[in-house]
TrEMBL record:
SUPFAM superfamilies, A to Z: Chalcone isomerase
The entry's keywords: Lipoprotein, Membrane, Signal, Transmembrane
PANTHER family registered for this protein in UniProt: FATTY-ACID-BINDING PROTEIN 3, CHLOROPLASTIC (PTHR47698:SF2)
Protein name: Lipoprotein transmembrane
Residue span(s) of domain Chalcone isomerase: 27-195
Superkingdom of origin organism: Bacteria
Organism taxonomic ancestry: Bacteria, Pseudomonadati, Pseudomonadota, Betaproteobacteria, Burkholderiales
InterPro entries with a match to the protein in the record: Chalcone_isomerase, Chalcone_isomerase_3-sand, Chalcone_isomerase_sf
Originating species: Pseudoduganella danionis
Signal peptide range: 1-26
Length: 197
């Protein structure tokens, strides 16, 4: 009888321990950064579409994850997604805001045509002002860019809102093309965000 109770207790403890491990199994780890398999943005559940590392020369700069309402494997489908979206970035090294802002602008300019750049210029300038407020992005800092339909693009640093809402979806799509466009900032990161290996 006593042995049966011990076995029951062990079984219960094992099941309980296993239940605590479930969220960890659902997360994807990239360069030591965990990306949850699903998150909530604007009341909608988003799924991790893909995650990867931005490398410059030999240095790992940041880990990035793309969240969508449902998984997509083509750039056109990602850009056409109608629901909320999130790009989550965790810095793997310190980068000055000037360098990060320049890389952002280079990526934007390399993946949008002149007419589109003109159309989104006011929002691009507002976004540039966000980086002017931050001296540097430090290792471990988390930058998130959320798109909420009917509202716009909101930027967060370590969970705190920074900058103003940018209302045009064309701006958010231009930002996504920094990583997903024809001339992505990192040719290995693009397929990773699209769910490839």
């Amino acid at each position: 009888m006593k042995r049966r109770n011990i076995l029951k207790s062990l079984f219960a403890a094992t099941m309980l321990a296993g239940s605590f491990c479930l969220p960890a199994l659902a997360a994807v780890e990239v360069a030591g950064v965990k990306f949850d398999d699903s998150i909530k943005v604007a009341g909608s559940e988003l799924k991790l579409n893909g995650a990867g590392v931005r490398t410059k020369v030999i240095f790992k700069v940041y880990a990035a994850g793309l969240y969508l309402t449902e998984k997509k494997s083509s750039v056109a489908d990602v850009l056409a997604t109608s629901g909320p979206r999130r790009v989550a970035i965790t810095m793997l090294r310190e980068v000055s805001s000037e360098d990060f802002g320049k890389a952002f602008m280079d990526g934007l300019n390399n993946n949008t045509d002149k007419n589109e750049r003109t159309r989104i210029l006011p929002q691009t300038m507002k976004f540039g002002e966000v980086f002017a407020q931050i001296p540097a992005l430090k290792k471990g800092d988390q930058l998130t860019l959320d798109w909420t339909p009917g509202e716009g693009t909101q930027c967060y640093l370590n969970g705190k809102k920074i900058g103003e809402l940018m209302p045009d979806v064309a701006f958010y799509n231009a930002v996504l093309r920094i990583w997903l466009g024809e001339h992505p900032v990192d040719s290995d990161l693009k397929p990773a965000l699209l769910g490839g290996k």
